[in-house]
Amino acid sequence: MELRQLEYFLAVVEERSFTRAAARMHVAQPGVSAQIRRLERELGQELLDRAGPAVRLTQAGATFLPHAKAALSAVTDARLALDELAGLVRGRLAVGLVTSFSSVPVSDLLADFHRTYPEVEIRLSEASSDQLVAGLRDGQLDVALISTGRQLPAGLNTRVVVDEALVAAVVQEDPLAVGSEVALADLRDRPLICLPQGTGARTGLDEACEAAGFQPRVTMEAGDPHRLVELAGRGLGVAVLPAPFARRHGVRLRGLEIVAPRIRTRVALAWPAERPASPAGQAFVDLACAVVPSL
Fold first, then answer.
1. Helices marked H in the chain — which ranges?
2. Where is mean pLDDT largest: 79-83, 97-101, 285-289?
3. Does residue 270 carry a pLDDT above 90?
4. Rounded to a whole number, what is the distance in angstroms from the first to the last CA of the chain?
5. Domain C-terminal end among 57, 85, 113
6. CB atoms within 10 A of CB 28
7. Which of 159, 221, 236, 239 fits as disulfide partner to 193, beta carbons 3.0 to 4.6 Å?
């Protein structure tokens, strides 16, 4: 049994086609078919049902599939371990970024990493902080920039890189706009426009309101802070968001720092507590920690 046979088998299963699998593996289609036939003869079982328009697993193939995946994964892990021992960084880097975050030059970080480690395939995905934390814990992500409230997530290493006040943004005509601050209690009965649950800013607001003994009256949610500003600018409610976003729209809106209590929202670089899932992940953490100042 050869590794390439397992690779061809997995490609056919995922593509459900010998032709597409061959294109994916950059080999001729007859070569893929021949190698899988040899694998089936060696195992004494047909692994694939070729009768229909799409290739399907036989019962034997379904039984064999997880073992083939495990074998290929073990070989990949062994190669990465040897690369790490030799001081090389290869493989993949899975980076998560909280949606609509722009305070850290992520593009510059990724470009610097790519110049230093050109053989690493970089994958970047955006999601809510809750989803990113789950991805770090289950090994889908090596490192992520997440937004948090007062409490940092357990089970992860974190490095806080942004710490900002949470403000209430109102139109200039709003009675609250006469000052520079607003007590949290004064927002109790106001319609609020907020980031969705799972974001650091929303978590901070919900925690503060719970401690004050009431639930915020959230009437509108949007994942993009700029959309919150647009909605508040139309007089549809009070936008609760990190201070920098309100400052950018100072002509249309007035940002009032929320006090009694003051609420902070933080962005942190996070990675698994033991270590990132790969040498590439560790290399990225080292680079980010050297370039991005901590608070």
1. 3-15, 18-25, 29-43, 59-85, 106-116, 129-137, 200-212, 225-233, 243-247, 279-291
2. 285-289
3. yes
4. 53
5. 85
6. 11
7. 239
Q: Which of 85, 107, 141 delimits the end of a domain?
A: 85
Distance, CA of 17 to CA of 247 (rounded, Å): 54
Give the angle 284-288-293 at the CA atoms, nearest 5°.
170
Instruction: Give the integer Cα–Cα distance in Å for 189 and 178.
Output: 19
How many other CB atoms are found less than 10 A from the CB of residue 227?
16
The CATH number of residue 273's host domain is 3.40.190.10
Contact 167, 258 (CB under 8 A): yes
Name residue, tokens 């650091």: 200
216: helix, coil or strand?
A: coil
Q: Do 266 and 160 meet the contact criterion of CB atoms below 8 Å apart?
A: yes
**In this structure, are 104 and 200 located in the same domain?**
no
Structure tokens at 103: 């305070």
Q: Cβ of 292: how many Cβ atoms within 10 Å? A: 18
- Domain interval for residue 44: 3-85
Is the confidence at residue 101, as pLDDT, over 70?
Answer: no
CA 159 and chain centroid, separation: 16
Do 148 and 278 lie in one domain? The reply is yes
Contact 142, 275 (CB under 8 A): no
> 194 vs 15, 66, 103, 151, CA distance in Å?
41, 43, 19, 19
Sequence letter at residue 211: A
For residue 37, give both structure tokens.
Answer: 């036939």
User: How many structural domains is the chain composed of?
Assistant: 3
Q: Is the whole model's pTM more than 0.70, yes or no? A: no
**CB distance 108 to 50 below 8 Å:** no
